[in-house]
Amino acid sequence: MELDDNAKEAAREIGNAINNAVSESEAVKEAIEHLRDLGYEAVYSLNLKIALDRIDESMEADEPAENIELELTDEDLRTLQRMKIKFE
Length: 88
What we know:
By secondary structure, this protein is an all-alpha fold. It has one domain. The chain is 47% helix and 0% strand. It has helices at residues 5-24, 26-37, 74-82. It is elongated. It starts with a helix and ends in a 6-residue tail after the last helix.
């Protein structure tokens, strides 16, 4: 599906919002500081894949989206675990 400029901008906005939330998180800052106290420098990466699907008016509101896929590396999962975020 080709996205129009408005949808592309909205996808960029959500990516920026997630990045800002993680970077401004006190829990993340504390976890990084804890690693530094232990003598390690945190190097991490969080990959986010955003899939958009146009809303079909025939879809029911409580029907889950089928095209959402989030690919996380082992390092991403460890980072989320340190942040006490569950990913299933």
